[in-house]
Every structure is written in C-alpha cells, then in structure tokens.
Amino acid sequence: MNAMASLVLLPLLGAFIAFLIPRYGRHIGILSALLILFATLSLAQQISTDGPLRMAVGGWQAPLGIALYVDGLTALLLCLTTTVGLGVSLYALGYFGEGATGEARKKHALSGWWPLWLLLWAALNALFLAADVFNLYVTLELLGLAAVGLVALEAQAVVAATRYLLVGLLGSMLYLLGVGLLYALYGTVDMSGLASNMRAEPAAWVAMALMSGGLLLKAALFPLHFWLPPAHANAPAPVSAVLSALVVKAAFYALLRLWLGPFEPLAPALAGQLIGFLGACAIIWGSLQALMAPRLKLVVAYSTVAQIGYLFLWFPLADSPTGGAIAWYGVVWLALSHGLAKAGLFLAAGNILHASGHDRVTDLAGVGQHLPVTLFAVGLSCASIMGLPPSGGFVGKWLLLNAAFVSGQWWWAVVLLVGGVMAAAYSFRVLLHAFRNKESQHPHHIPHPIMEWSALALAVGAILLGVLSAQPLELLEVGASMGKLALSEAP
Amino acid sequence: MSQYLWYALVGTGLFSIGLLGLILHRHLLRRMLALNVMSTGVFMIFVALANRNSALPDPVPLAMVLTGLVVSVSATALGLVLIEKVQRQHGTPVLPEDDA
Amino acid sequence: MVIERYRPFTVMVAVVVVTVSTLLLVWAIGSLPPESPGLSAQVSANLINSGVQAEVTAVLLNFRGYDTLLEVSVLLTALLGVWYLGPFHITSDTPVRGLVMDNMVRFLTPVMILVTGYVLWLGSHAAGGAFQAGALLAGAGVLVQVVRPEWLALRDSRTFRGLLIAGPAVFVLVAAGMMLLSGSMLEYPREHAGSLILLIEAASTLSIAAILTMLFTGGRPHPGAGN
Question: Any CB–CB contact under 8 A between C35 and chain B?
C-alpha cells in the first residue's frame, strides 16, 4: 500500500522541492529516482508473493472513492518507467550539468528540467496505478501538460510543442466525454464496476468510440501520428527518450486496460481488424519515413511511429482463443523492449548531436572514432528494434508471429516480416554512415561519460530482456490479465 | 422535452461547434477558443446529466466538472503562452503546415 | 492578418465528420435513462463522516481527494511550463491608469480579499471552497498587476516560489502523513477530517491565486531577493 502511494507522492514532492531550491535540483532528482526504484522493486516483490493489489484511496471504496490497482502488467510497466527514469536522470546529470553545452544551454531551461521531469514521472506512475477512468483522465492531463512543458524547453520546438498540446487536448476532451457518458449510464467510474455493469447499449458504444479515439490520438496510431515526429525529434534528448519510451506507451496502456476491462464485452471483431490494419499502415509508413529522414532524431522518431504500430497488432489477435494469449505476451514484450531500446537510442542520438553540433545522417562519419560507447549503444538498440536475437525485440516479434499463425490471421505475419526488413534497412542506413571514419576533425564537445554509459545501459537492458525473460514472464502472469501462457508454447 | 435533455443537447451543440472550429480554423487563437467551446460543451453535458435526479443534483459529476475546469484553465494558459511564442518566432499565429 | 482559407474538400469532410458525431452523441444521450440518482445517495450517507457539510466539497476534498491532489499539481505543472518559456512582459512602466481604474483597484482589492476568505470558509457547508476562493483572489491579483503592479512587486524569490508550491505541497504532505500514520494515503481520521480539509483548502487558495496570477502574466518574474 505504502509503495503504491509513494510512487506518486515521492516524485510530486521531489518536483516541488526541486522548483523551490533549483540549486539542488540534480540531487533531488537522483534521490527521488533511487527512492522510486526502491518502491517499485518492493511493490513488484509484494505482488509476486501476494497476487494483485487493490487500494481504496482515503479508505473510501469504489464507486464512491478512487481505487488503485497493481497486477503483473502494471508492475512491469512501472519497472520499465523506473528503469528508463533512472537512466534518463543519470543522463540528465551530464546533459544539464555545469559544463553543459549543446541544445539546452539557457540557464532557465536547464533548471526547468528537474521539476517538470519529476511531475511527468509522477503522472506516469499515477496512470499505471489507476483503476478509475476519471482518475485516468486527470493523470493523462498531468502527463500531457508536463510533456508539453518539457518539449517547449527547447526553443526550436515551440511549434511542435503547440501542436502536441492542441492534439493532446482534443484527445482528452473526447476521452472525458466518454467518461461522462459511462458515468451517466452506470453511476460509477471505477473500472471493475464498469466491467460488471457494461451492457451493449447506444451510449456505451459511443463512449467506447470516444474514449478509444481520444487515446488513439495520444498513442499516435496512424493516421493520428502526425504530431509525434516533430515533437520527439525537436525536444531535448532526454525528453525525447521519455516521450517515445514511456508517454506514448501510457496512452496505449490505458487503451489496453479499457479493452481488457470495461469494454471487453463490447469490442467487435471488426474494430480489432481495423485497428490492426492501421497498425500495419503505421509500421509500413513509419519505417518508410525513417528510411528517408535526413536527421537522426527524426529517423528515431519515425521509428517510434512504426514500433507503436506493432503494439496495435494485439487488437485483432486478441479475439482468437488460442493466439490471444501469445499475442498478449508478445505485445507486452515489445512494449518493454522498445521502451528500453528507444530510450537508449534517443540518448545516444543526443550524444551525437551534442558532439558534432548536428545530427544529419549523411554526415555521421566519425562517430565510431570519437564516441565508441555511444555507437555501441546505437547498435544494440537497433538490434532490438530490428528484432535480432537474443534481444527483447526478437522475443516480442517471435511471439507475435507465433500468434498470427496460431490464430489463422497469417496476414499479420507478412506485415511483421516486412516491418522487420524495413527496420533493418533504416537501422543499417544510420549505422553504415556512423561507422565510417573521418579524417581527424575533432568533434565540438565530447559528452560527459555518464551520458554515453547511461545510453548504453538502457540499450543493454533491451537485450537482457530477451535473455533473462523468465522472471518478467512470471511477473506478468500475476493477475492473469489474459490467461496464463502454457510454458510449452513459449520459445 | 425534460429540462436536463435540453441542456444536454445544447452542450452537444457546443461540443460540435467547437470541434468544427478546431478542425477548420488555422489561426491558433481561434483553435484554442474552439477547444474551450468544446470543453464547455462537455461540462454542460456532465452537469445536465447530473440533474436527472428529482431531488438534489448528483455531486460527483459536479466535482468532476470543477476538476475539469481547472485542468482546462491550466491547459489554455499554457497554450496561449506557446501561441505567443510561435507568433514571435514565425511572425504568424499559424502552425507552419497550415500556412500553405 | 490571418485570412482563413477554407478548401471545399476539407470543409465537406469536417462537416460530415462533425455531423455524424453529433448525431451519434444525440442518439447516445437520448437513450440514457431519464431518472438516475447516480452516487448522490452514497454521498449523502457518508457526508457525516467526511468532515464537511457540503456534498461537492466532500467529494472534492475527501471521497475523491486524490483527483484534486493531482489536479492542483496539474495547475502547477502548467505554470512551470509557462515559467520556463521566458520572462513576462508586463512591466511597471506601462500599467493601466485613469480615474476609474485607480479607484476601482483601491476599493475592490480589499473587498475581494475579504470575499475570498468568506468563500473559502463557506465551502465547508455550501457551494464554495479553495478553487472558487483562489480564483477570486487571482482576480484581485490580476487587477492589481494591471493597474498597480508595484503593490505586488512580483519577484522570482524563494518565498514566492514557496507560495506557489504551498497548496500542492501541503496536500501531498497531508496525504503522505496519513499514509505513515494509518497506512492509507489520504485517509483522514474522522475527528480531524474537517480541520485537515480546511488546512489543505487554505494553502491551496493562496497557491491557486498566485499560480493563476502568474499564468495571466504569462512568464516568470524577474529575479528578486533570496535567489
């Protein structure tokens, strides 16, 4: 119980103190990260022994009060958030440090990072813990505003931040209207309350459409992805990492919770296929744009658009009784691996931008010479994104392929394979340029070692997720959100 | 038509007008205003539906509307400052891809 | 001068989309049961245990207090976004002057402060509370900032920053305190519920007022003492 509350209260308090005493912003940030790590691990430990946890905030049971809920899925996403959060916080020590040069040089933007980042972290934790659809709305808003504030720290990203804000607000409005309709129907906003009362009636259908639409907008599913590449590409590097790795996943998680819980009896098979189709378009279109993008951060941002598409392949596959569970594990694996890999990749891209003053893909020569650790991080991250064994990305894609065949929906397998080839294409494009050696031209600034090593650590994490898959798998089964995976079916 | 239904339909109308304005307008300030009209519509629907009670109105949706209002104000404030910055940077309060 | 150009195709698509969604909404709303008490019975039943006598305040600060905690943080987050975008432009060189404005400020400001206190206190047994009071006080703040900014002398100082975070911080500290004392976040002990709620609301009123005034000025103030 305390762990759950701490996950939200700690970063909030940290943010307030970091704003009050900016000189100690870094210390408070790292301290908060460590305390959150401790809370996350103890929570994960708790649920693996005791099963899923449900907490009534303020002692008031739903539907009057607000409930928080932790099962395996929540715990894994909290672990992802903590891992990426720790990595990004360490990276930020170097990026926003005393001798920092590069993008966010202005003193005031520098001190803006810590309070806003801690607020974002609080929002993420609160979102993953939420079991109440209105509470989810408030956490989505906190998340969105903190994210926009962070993107806007970079002067060049003002336009992208404005677009992000407008799109985010539209999504929130649609979602909120859906919440209103659900409450008007069933007199509760608690997810389990809604799940037991849900009937197929007009207002419920409309609520489902509204809430899904709003969340799809926030999760950047094709064709609602247009706001993502400029926002993720122009933000400061640690912000981009957090946005791609965690913030879009949060919207996807919310959608997942809704479709697994309250909307489960309503979801028509056709909607699943449509969403899967859009996911396939995202994969193809995103990868194509990544292949053609002139700047490294833009390549990485479009790669996020493509990788999000993979996650949405769960929707059509979930209907199948045999393939559904396998798809579930695959998608969760992909979400986790992508989070780690993409964060590492954006941090590495930040290093390159920092060192050379630009991130044009064609002029990346020399990175291998001067920033070998960073280049290794790029390589490992790309390996996971491509789906090379033994990375976490490979495990996820393998499971999805499996699910596609088992459920008879073989066309998704084609999409997966094409996507894999295209991911390899844009990854190699970047790597080939980066591996070339340049005649000795000193880069402008070698980034602080912590910036290189935190990027590498996250990338290694993505690979480890494929190798050490037993424990996370066990954790995921807590709460059995989608049936237990018989071990004979797992690779 | 019962009273609550009338207000709920007005709220729906506001929501739709706001949505239309958000999609069609290019000027960022008008888009921001359109979003505000939309949110007013949503809140109106909430309050209208809360008044379906013959006795006191249901306090929970009313509390939700209060929360939503504060969130809306916060977001609008941030949006306005961002729009001002866009105007300063680009000389026109329109997002670049709309300025065709 | 932005001239709105409406391409016929876009307009048609937009009108179709919006019309369809409107019809669906009307269909949905029309199908709702005309009588529905919602949670009002539960709220009334638990009101005596909540520490206040007004239903909406009880929901906001007690039953669903966690939402309010997050929402006050949202307000602060928006301010931080604005804060780090740049300094504000209203300077004391160009305040609005004139007979009407000067007298209005001198008369209204103390009245508004009084009414703020009243509305804050009122919230425990009728419509009122921290947000309404905070908004009123912010109105006074905006008025003063526009006409007599030297009265406020907004400066980026530790004290001022402390004022901005006071409300959210008190809320979080009370939540954490309850967690440490009784094991459940935001669970007020019954006898003290009213006082705790008043404490949270008072701190929040000040913070909300300061935050809204700063949001109006649209940027961070100039550095001041203690920074």
Answer: yes
Inter-chain touch B25–C4, beta carbons under 8 Å: yes
Neighbours of chain C (3+ CB pairs under 8 A): A, B
Asked if residue A71 lies in contact with residue A476, where contact means CB atoms within 8 angstroms, the answer is: no
Q: Contact B20/C14 with Cβ under 8 angstroms? A: yes
Angle, vertex CA C142, rays to CA C139 and CA C146, nearest 5: 145
Q: Which three-class secondary structure state does DSSP give residue C51?
A: coil
User: Which residues sit opposite A70 in a β-bridge?
Assistant: A53
Sign of the CA dihedral running B41, B46, B49, B55: negative
Separation between Cα atoms, residue A372 and residue A366, nearest integer Å:
10
**Tokens 């932005």, residue?**
C2
Instruction: Find the range with the poorest average confidence among A25-34, A471-480, C12-21.
Output: A471-480
Average pLDDT over residues A186-195: 92
Distances (CA, A) of C153 to B91, C90, C134, C215: 31, 12, 19, 16
C14 contacts B66? CB cut-off 8 A: no
3-class secondary structure, B25:
coil
Residue listed under structure tokens 């990854």: A427
Determine, for residues C84 and A205 on separate chains, whether the beta-carbon distance falls below 8 Å. no
Residue in chain A lying closest to C178 (CA) = A58
Distance CA A260, CA A327 (A): 13
Boundaries of every domain in chain C? 40-217
pLDDT digits (tens, 9 = 90+) for C74-114: 999 999 999 999 888 765 457 778 899 899 999 999 999 99
Q: Do A109 and C38 touch (CB under 8 A)?
A: no
Judge: A166–B22 Cβ closer than 8 Å, yes or no: yes
pLDDT digits (tens, 9 = 90+) for A432-489: 888 887 765 666 677 888 888 999 999 999 999 888 888 888 888 887 655 444 333 3
The two tokens of residue C154 are 């907004």
Which residues is A190 bridged to in the sheet?
A132
**A131: DSSP letter:** -
> DSSP letters along C85-135, please?
T-B----TTS---SHHHHHHHHHHHHHHHHHHHHHHHHTTTSS--HHHHHH
Q: Which of C13, C22, C27, C32 to mutate to test the interface with B (most CBs of B within 10 A)?
A: C22
Mean pLDDT of A41-60: 90
Please count the other Cβ atoms lying within 10 Å of the Cβ belonging to residue A143.
Answer: 28
Residues of A in contact with C169 (CB under 8 A): 13, 16
Q: State how beta strands A67-70 and A53-56 pair.
A: antiparallel
How many Cβ atoms sit within 10 Å of the Cβ of residue C93?
6
b or e along C52-84 (b: 16 or more beta carbons within 10 Å of the residue's beta carbon)?
bebbbbbbbbbbbbbbbbbbbbbbbbbbbbbbb
CB pairs under 8 A between A and C: 154
Q: Residue A56: what are its φ and ψ, rounded to 5°? A: -95, 110
Question: Distance from A328 to chain C by nearest Cα, in Å?
Answer: 31
Q: Does C170 touch chain A (CB under 8 A)?
A: no
Pick from B73, B8, B1: which is nearest to B42 by CA?
A: B8
CATH number of B3-98: 1.10.287.3510
